[in-house]
Amino acid sequence: MRTITYAIGDVHGEAVRLRQLHASIFERHAFEFGDAIAKIVHLGDYVDRGPDSADVIEAVMELESRSGLQTVALKGNHEAMLIEGLTAAHEGAYDNWLVNGGDATVQSYKDRGHDTVLKTHLSWLKARPNIHVDAAQKLIFVHAGIQPQLYPDDRSETYLWTRSRRFFEVQNWKNEALIGWTVIHGHTPTDDYYPEIVEAQATRINLDTGAVFGGRLTAAVIAPGEKVRFIYS
Predict the structure, then answer these.
(1) Do the beta carbons of residue 186 and residue 207 sit within 8 Å?
(2) How far apart are CA 1 and CA 205, in angstroms?
(3) 40: which of 28, 29, 65, 201 is 20 to 30 A away, CA to CA?
(4) Which residue(s) pair with 232 in the sheet?
(5) Residues sharing a CB contact under 8 Å with residue 111, sequence separation 6 or more, in sequence order
(6) Cβ atoms of 142 and 183 closer than 8 Å
(7) What is the rounded distance in angstroms from the CA atom of residue 43 to the CA atom of residue 179?
């Protein structure tokens, strides 16, 4: 049975739109793909800046408990900042998180009657992987990107933080390990708030379409043998 993959870009607290996007995915899947397996991959940055980070985490956790659905939820750099801010011994880490949008995340919990991020949510965020590889379909999912000259031996921090020109310029990738593969990422908002597809010997798809900046929340629909399409919220 074939698997249809839905990859979702940076959410940043846009809980209402994420739930709408999930509903659109299930509707599209039932209409177009029938009994095929549905797999949803979130690319990270669930929290910060937007109005309801707490509910974004709840929404993704709810998907994990849904039967008949494969889910992957990656860690983004904002999750990394949250974790460091709440667990590091030095005060600077907490302040750094707050000024990068963490203040909105804290407020989303206060609005629910909690002083800070729930321990269950923090534990869940800590357990998020930095990368997901689908070898059968030659798909690499990361939050920010990879080091194309080193992959698969690059540093895990790259998956959370990179904005290297070497990564963005697919036509210059020389690593044979990436030929025929597609890297799906977010982290760097596209200029026009539409997803970006760059193709050469490999393909790069950017799904950060600036949802929290007035742009779109985007899911890529990746079906074997078909052109990649998109769903927006």
Answers:
(1) yes
(2) 25
(3) 201
(4) 218
(5) 52, 54
(6) yes
(7) 22
Which strand ranges, in their side-by-side order, compose the sheet holding 196-199? 131-134, 139-142, 182-185, 203-206, 196-199
Phi and psi of 138, rounded to 5°? 55, 55
C-alpha 183/C-alpha 143 separation (Å) is 10
Cα 211 from Cα 208, distance rounded (Å):
8
- Written as tens digits, the pLDDT of the chain (233 aa) is 899 999 999 999 999 999 999 999 999 999 999 889 999 999 999 999 999 999 999 999 999 999 999 999 999 999 999 999 999 878 799 999 999 999 999 999 999 999 999 999 999 999 999 999 999 999 999 999 999 999 999 999 999 999 999 999 999 999 999 999 999 999 999 999 999 999 998 999 999 999 999 999 999 999 999 999 999 99
pTM of this structure: 0.97
The residue assigned the tokens 């990564």 is: 167
Tokens, residue 204: 């790069």
Q: How many residues does the chain have?
A: 233
Cβ proximity of 47 and 105 under 8 Å? yes
